[in-house]
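Hi team, as promised in this morning's meeting, here are the two structures we talked about. I've kept the exact order from the run log so nobody has to guess. The first one is mostly here for context; it's the second one we should focus on when we meet again. Sequence first, then the predicted structure tokens.
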Amino acid sequence: MSKDDRTFIERADSITGNLYGEPMSAERIEENFALYGLRKRVAALERFDAELGGEIDSSPHNLRRRIQLVDLRRRMGSLHEELRKAKR
């Protein structure tokens, strides 16, 4: 089996693109994230952090993508904290 070098977002885009004909927006990813249980949210955030910890390519496209990912990670982290405070 070949190694999949795509990021979390790239895999989500590919899957939803195949299922629904268009990639999933960051807002939709965040909405789905809110439906996860505590353990699944923690695991998703840890995987996301591991992916963000890698090398940064300096091409304009990759830098824009990186900014989008960091913003999504921040929003997901805030949402996770709000849900934890609400005991969910």
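And here is the second protein, the one for discussion:
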Amino acid sequence: MLMLRKYLQRIILIVIALLGVKTGIEGFISTLNMHSNDASVINWDERLSNLIAPVPFEYGLIGYISNADIPGAAFDEDDVFGEYILTQFAVAPLILVQGTDQEWNILNLDPVTYETWNQINANQFEVVGFGGGVYLVRKADK
């Protein structure tokens, strides 16, 4: 009986070890199939660097809104925070502030949502630059 118990313990130990190796190999293979997001981050940085070129100051606050800030607009919850962080990184040392209370603002909106926002805010902002669903707007002179 004692021999059978030791034999079963060894078999269980070998099975656990093999499952661990299998899981490790599957994890390694899954990382090989992942695509790097470096190109999209660089593209985001370049787009926003060109977009904010007209901003007349290097340090300060700049407003930011995305589809998530527009009631009824479609947006991907997973992208909201990531795009905000990418935008902040791209415009540094400017500091993003949620909303459009600043003189200069970045709108990260799809075309339909931008049209909705533009109708709601008619004549309050002037579009200074745009590209790829990202708009730079400035509060209109009153």
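Starting points for discussion:
DSSP finds four helices and five strands in the chain.
The chain has two domains: 1-34, 38-139.
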